[in-house]
Amino acid sequence: MAIIQDAALFHLVRGTLGGEVTIYERNGQIIMAKKRGPSKQKPTQKQLEARYKMRVAAAYAKVIIQDPDLKAYYKSLAGPGQNAYNMAVKDAYHSPEIQNIRLEAEEVVVTVKDEFRVAEVQVRVVDTEGVLLERGRAILGRNGIDWYYKAAALPRGARLIVVAVDLPGNESTKELLIT
Predict the structure, then answer these.
(1) What is the pTM of this model?
(2) Is residue 164 over pLDDT 90?
(3) Average pLDDT for residues 140-144, to the nearest whole number?
(4) Which residue among 26, 78, 104, 176 is buried most deeply as judged by most CB within 10 Å?
(5) Residue 135 to residue 40: CA distance in whole angstroms
(6) Cα 106 from Cα 148, distance rounded (Å)
(7) Are the beta carbons of 174 and 97 closer than 8 angstroms?
(8) How far apart are the C-alpha atoms of 135 and 115, rounded to whole Å?
């Protein structure tokens, strides 16, 4: 490994040259090093899961950019050096986050965050024995974050099960015990 100083050419170059040498920047210093080969260690379970998740996200992106409307949506969110495919992969890789569930009288208010778009929020009310009392879709509020569901009844001891789904179909689930 070599640290490059005062070489104008290397301030513009990044990447691998000839499959032998890699030039990169770390902490403001330009470094030239021998190109790393593949790891000889077996991948961990977490690495295998991340690889699988990336494969699924890439497959989603390949299909989704065939739809002109969705391609235009993702392209509108792309920054410099990014495209619709990159944004679709990023969206498919991350699930929506249910940040909060609160009760306001007979109304369930769910705060959901997703970097792109939440497609739907479903609410189920289950009693203490696990019997489904009611279910339905919540409606997106004006602020674009809170979803509202008007419940017929919210008996004590029952559980609210909230499922948030984003555009690629990733689901997040959160439960709340009604006290």
Answers:
(1) 0.74
(2) yes
(3) 92
(4) 176
(5) 51
(6) 10
(7) no
(8) 26
